[in-house]
Amino acid sequence: MALIALSLLFMAFLAWKVWRGASAVLRTAGDVSDERTAYWDAALERAKVQHVTEPRTTVPGSAVFATPEKMKDDYLAAKEERRFARLQRRVARRKERGQLQSLRDIQALQDVG
Questions:
Q1: 52 pLDDT more than 60
Q2: In this structure, are residues 108 and 87 in contact, taking their beta carbons and an 8 Å threshold?
Q3: Phi-psi region for residue 61, left (φ > 0), alpha (ψ -120 to 50) or beta?
Q4: Distance (Å, rounded) from C-alpha 29 to C-alpha 26?
Q5: How many CB atoms lie within 10 A of CB 109?
Q6: Which of 3, 82, 92, 94 could covalently link to 99 via disulfide, CB atoms 3.0 to 4.6 Å apart?
Q7: Residues 6+ away with beta carbon under 8 Å from 87
Q8: pTM score, whole prediction
């Protein structure tokens, strides 16, 4: 009888330890989830602030009546603008992370500015 009581007591002790371990893991997972949520909310807010685009100046459908030369110039200007925006984001991201900057990126920024 004593052996059965001792076995039940030991099993209750093990169940208590498992319960405490599982609750600690769940609590830690909740904390990490809250941190990640806060990080992503802040990142989305920064993205909204940093990537404010200018209102469109062209009317949709106006390309039909434009000359091919004007359309090519518009395309190349927009392409250069996108390239420069990527360059600025890359430099800002590396600066934020404390990484080394590429010499090519620094020279490109100096050429423009």
A1: no
A2: yes
A3: left
A4: 5
A5: 14
A6: 94
A7: 105, 108, 109
A8: 0.45
